[in-house]
Amino acid sequence: MENTLSALNPQQWTVPLPIEYGPGARAKLVELCRRFNIQRPFIVTDQGSLNLPFVAELQQNLNAAGLACGLFGGIEPNPTDTSVLEGAQAYRAWEADGVIALGGGSGLDGAKAIALIARQQRCNVWAFDFDKPVPAGFVAADFPPVISIPTTAGTGAETESTAMVTDTRRGIKGCVWHPHARPAAVILDPELTQSLSANLTAWTGFDAIIHALEAYFVPSFNPLSDGAALQALDLLWNAIDTAVHDGRNLEARGKMLIGSCLAGVAFLKGLGLVHALSHMVGATYNTHHGLTNAIILPVVLRFNQQAISARLKPVSQALDLPDSGFETFYAAICQKLDSLNIPKSLSALGVQHVDVPVIARKALADPARATNPCDSSLEQLEALLTQAIDRARD
Fold it and tell me: Which residues, 6 or more positions from 388, have their beta carbon under 8 angstroms from its beta carbon?
């Protein structure tokens, strides 16, 4: 552990892209399209966002500026390779030259995956599988520019090239990416999150908190990511209650959106077992990713207790806890989950014991497992899932 955290180890770090932040920042979209030479933008969003007022608003603003705007709203709550292929075909049919990724994590991931294959005829998003060598021969011009506009404060997917997609053949969630396909710019407009329901605010908000926690605990030396993770925790932890209970509060919504973005930057460093397990539960049961993460979190924290306890002091300070002991930290997490009405077991989502062996085997191969602070066996993953199904927290 200490060796991997040493300042003597060579590292490669990535910093974010241009970000426009503020209430009403979506008005910058036309300017950004022109900056990146997008003449025929193509909005990609998720099924849950398609009919929300801001989608039509953005499309109308682009059209009024002479930027003929197409729209694809077929991305599922857990994006599949099928809808990604349909979106890429629609992009080409529109003769688009840029993607506006709009929505929650599913919309953003679906849009980024579409951008991977929109300009080339391979039409197989799994050519860009994160677990395989980076495909050779691609340059930045092979991918359309992407401007991402998150409408939830949770996934932090707006700054990254990676996208989580369900492989309909294998029945798993996989990560696709290319280093030259990062978004060109981000718009963070907290007004777009004001209509989010209390439940979705809590679920997506805790997703962001978990991104920050898991990224910080990854055992590698990356002070840029660690700093982003701690700042994210400070913003998210202190704003989530207000955002949930007073959704029109722009100050709280803004802090949540910034914190989510910072947490997304932080997990360039990696994630952990919460995500490895949650990805495969979601692929099997189509559960909400943030909610699934939140339920699983306490089980994984207990599993990682020995490895993370020595690094808790800055986290405890960010969460304004009275001491940096593990039990104080764990109790605060559980209390926050209780206050946000997060169920205490995966069984509340319909997850059944009969599927534990299959889910565990799939989670064993998830890249997030490799950066967890503690190694894990198949048997341990099965035990964690069983515990999460029965009773995930005290």
Answer: 277, 295, 296, 299, 345, 346, 351
Round to whole Å and give the CA distance between 205 and 261. Answer: 11
What residues have CB less than 8 Å from 114, skipping those under 6 apart? 44, 72, 84, 87, 88, 91, 99
4, with CB counted inside 10 A (0-12, 13-18, 19+), is: exposed
Say how far apart CA 215 and CA 229 lie, in whole Å: 7
Residues sharing a CB contact under 8 Å with residue 167, sequence separation 6 or more, in sequence order: 81, 126, 173, 174, 283
Q: Which structure tokens are listed for 116?
A: 């991977």
List pLDDT tens digits, range 15-45: 778 999 999 999 999 999 999 999 999 999 9
Residue type for 87, please?
Answer: G
Give the ranges where the chain is alpha helix by DSSP (H): 29-35, 53-64, 81-94, 105-117, 198-217, 223-245, 250-266, 273-285, 289-303, 305-308, 312-318, 326-339, 356-364, 367-370, 378-390
155-159, 188-192, 230-234: segment of lowest average pLDDT:
155-159
The DSSP-derived string for 162-224 is: -EEEEETTTTEEEEE--TT---SEEEE-GGGGTT--HHHHHHHHHHHHHHHHHHHHSSS--HH
Q: How many residues are given for the chain? A: 394
Quote the CA–CA distance of 36 and 392 in Å, as a whole number.
47
Q: Is the pTM of this model over 0.90?
A: yes
Instruction: Specify the residue for token string 């696709």.
Output: 176
Secondary structure (3-state) at 131: coil
pLDDT at residue 122, as a whole number: 63
Average pLDDT, the chain: 95
List pLDDT tens digits, range 289-315.
Answer: 999 999 999 999 999 999 999 999 999
Question: Would residue 67 be called left, alpha or beta, if left means φ above 0 and alpha means ψ between -120 and 50 degrees?
Answer: beta
Contacts 24+ apart (CB under 8 A), 142-145: 142/180, 143/115, 143/116, 143/118, 143/119, 143/178, 143/180, 143/181, 144/91, 144/96, 144/97, 144/98, 144/99, 144/115, 144/118, 144/119, 145/36, 145/37, 145/38, 145/98, 145/99, 145/184
Question: Beta strands 172-176 and 163-167: pairing type?
Answer: antiparallel
CA distance 103 to 187: 12
Burial class (CB in 10 A: 0-12, 13-18, 19+), 66: exposed
- For residue 79, the surrounding DSSP H or E stretch is none
Pairing of strands 185-188, 172-176: unpaired
